Amino acid sequence: MLRRLAVAAAVVLAAAASMGARAAAQPLRVCADPDYMPFSNRALQGFENKLAQAVGHAMGETVTFVWHPSRGPGGFDQFLHDTLNAGRCDVVMNVPFASDNVLATRPYYVSSYVFVFPKKRNYAITSMDSPVLKELRIGFEQDTPPENGLKLRALILHATPFEVGDTPGESPATILTAVQNGKIGVAVTWQPSIGYFLRSFSSLEVVPVPNSRAAGTVEQYVFPMAMAARKGDTRTRDALDIAIAKSKPELQRILRSYGVLIYDGAGATGT
Questions:
Q1: Which of 118, 115, 114, 22 is nearest to 62 (CA)?
Q2: Structure pTM?
Q3: Which of 4, 76, 183, 199 has the highest local Cβ count within 10 Å?
Q4: How many CB atoms lie within 10 A of CB 64?
């Protein structure tokens, strides 16, 4: 027992030393898009801006933002290449936990893709295998898991692609407007990108897309999300993990204030 306690104490001291080393270094540099709400902007109005400030506070560090567009040629991978992996910043606030081109922290929230359709239609949509999808014009974001799911079911033949994630200046609210105006019957999109705007679209229903499939390999539409340090920068990653554990209730409060749907052990919780 004494040996176990000694080992545990050593782990705690090592973690504290790692965090202290970060605190003695330069301010925490956060790379973010200067104009991509609800994620971030120069006015610090996005949820990634607020998350960064909360984590910086938990780490005892000041936060500075390094601005760089995350949309355009090469997309988010190019953004990571030009910023975090080029040494221009220390952390990116919001990446899938399984990302292999960064050093991810432990997940700090889990969210999903969702179906969005007019409430008055009362469509029986519960999964990508729902029969009514065969009768509807479907909007989807290109180069995302829903696109692959639509192709597997031949639903792509009557689907409309959107390129919000690749088009500078485009708002995620564009796909909500297309549903509300009847340009498409249903959208399949990443919920954290639209939760902020849904307060202006009270006529729309939102249903999470489950990780399920009627036949074949299960598909993934629910994703744990993490923060990211550069590969090899374990000092920053470890300090972020400590800060996330310390401030997780505040981080989730921020996300919910932006309408982000968060999964807990029992499933999705309200926005």
A1: 22
A2: 0.86
A3: 76
A4: 14
Q: How far is CA 53 from CA 45, 46, 59, 99, 271, in A?
A: 11, 11, 10, 23, 21
For residue 43, what are its two tokens? 């006015």
Decide whether 2-109+225-269 matches 110-222 in CATH topology. yes
CB 232 within 8 A of CB 103: yes
Chain mean position to CA 265: 18
| pLDDT one-digit tens code per residue, 48-88 | 999 999 999 999 999 999 999 999 888 999 999 999 999 99
Encode 134-172: b = buried (16+ Cβ within 10 Å), e = exposed. Answer: eebebbbbeebbbbebbeeeebbeebeebebbbeeeebb
Query: What DSSP state is assigned to residue 25?
Result: S
- What SS3 state is found at 144? coil
* Domain 2-109+225-269: CATH class, spelled out: alpha beta
Q: Residue 193: CB partners within 8 Å, gap ≥ 6?
A: 38, 39, 164, 172
- pLDDT for 25-38, tens place per residue? 579 999 999 999 99
Domain layout of the chain by residue ranges: 2-109+225-269, 110-222
